Amino acid sequence: MSVRERERERETSGRDAYYDVIYIDPPYNTEASKTDGNNFSEKDDVVASKFVYRDKFSRNGWLNMMNERLKLAKNLLKNDGVIFVSIDDNEQAYLKVLMDEIFGEENFVTNFIWQKKSGGGLNKLIYEGHEYILCYSKNNYNFCLSEKNKKMSGFIKYKDKNNNSFFINSDIIRNNFGKKDNKFEHRNKAYEDLSKEDKEKWNLKLDNKNYILVPFKKEPGKHLVAKIFNDERKTTYSIIKLPFTFVSGIWTKDGNNEVDSLNIDFQNPKPIQLIMHLLDLHSNKNARVLDFFAGSGTTGHAVLELNKEDGGNRTFTLITNNENQIGTNVCYERLYRINNGVGTKNEADFDWINKNKPYLNNLNVYDLKYFNTNPIEIDNNEIKEAFTKMLVDFNNTSQSSLFENNQRELLINLSTLKPIEKKE
């Protein structure tokens, strides 16, 4: 048995086969509505009246919804697992406090800043072209960051026509405390001066010493990371060491273009490269990945593409409801098309297939059956038998050990999925 096969057997055997990586992109709670509690302070009584995906919750209602799911997510993580949660300014601070409580402050890894737009709004005083990705480990003592990401810290190595190495990163916007450089046409640039020691250290990582910061012709919008330009002007350009937590060069429009190329109708999905960047931070190439806000299926697409790039054998579990047919017409349809090269109705009139080969991976799909009953009702044999059969079908347990292991608690523990009513 090969090393990969042994690792895969270990990953999928027994009840310890939980998830290495969880990524979720929950509703951001952005609809401006005073009646829904958008502008109420925490001291006010706010009614959680809506629980429709992409709708506006009251803050208490949104945190209540996230609390249940994050507690369950923690239980589904392996001891060396990690969770990433996308969020924007509306709830980032509140979500951070909630995740500190659930995962423990000591297990906070970092708060990634994702620059999602390359420009800023001219009519705004402050540029808001970014979102956040909160990252927590199940146990920081066990979490192992991918070694190559420790070393590269965001840089990508390229070769020029003379086979000299250099590093690039797109749209370099760094520390707000750096020196502004008005010599370039691009807005929002602040370049960070490094010490002499830092410059000498980074000298070792650049084979060609004569580059300055100039547009990279082959890939529009990307720039060379430069050292010192030695000429009569004696102008010094610092090498920019990118913060590990700053993710740039992956734009919202990239995600839109990706689903458009598949003829899938979905607004503002996360780009594949963003999710690949996060997944690649975990050192296990056989990682099991979970996304229970699956949306357009970007996480599954990212897993397949990353496996293709580095020879990994990652697997994924995506969970979504079917509101507005998002499960069948968006998520499943996308994964079906990239796996088979045609749509579920045998369509082949989408651009993606002209530039890519189908992944040809297995894709298992399951649906939920709903029962109109109390989930803690012990004597309902129909539900008990259906639930037992489901877990057996998933190779999750045997019928004899099912209720001895208290797996029914999974239903009981989801105690606050309904809004909390304001008391009179």
Beta fraction: 5-15%
What's the shape? globular
Could you say how many structural domains there are in total? Answer: 3
CATH architecture of the largest domain: 3-Layer(aba) Sandwich
Rg, nearest Å: 24 Å
CATH class of the largest domain: Alpha Beta
Relative helix content: 25-40%
User: pLDDT average, as an integer?
Assistant: 67
CATH-defined superfamily of the largest domain: Vaccinia Virus protein VP39
Number of helices: 12
The overall strand count is 12
Order of helices and strands: HEHEHEEHEEEEHEEHHEHEHHHH
Question: How is this structure best summarized?
Answer:
The chain is an alpha/beta fold and 424 residues long. It has twelve helices and twelve strands.
Task: Fill in the keyword field for this structure.
Rossmann fold, seven-stranded mixed beta sheet, 28% helix, 14% strand, N4/N6-MTase_EcoPI_Mod-like, 3 domains, 12 strands, methyltransferase, 12 helices, alpha/beta, 424 residues, three-stranded antiparallel beta sheet
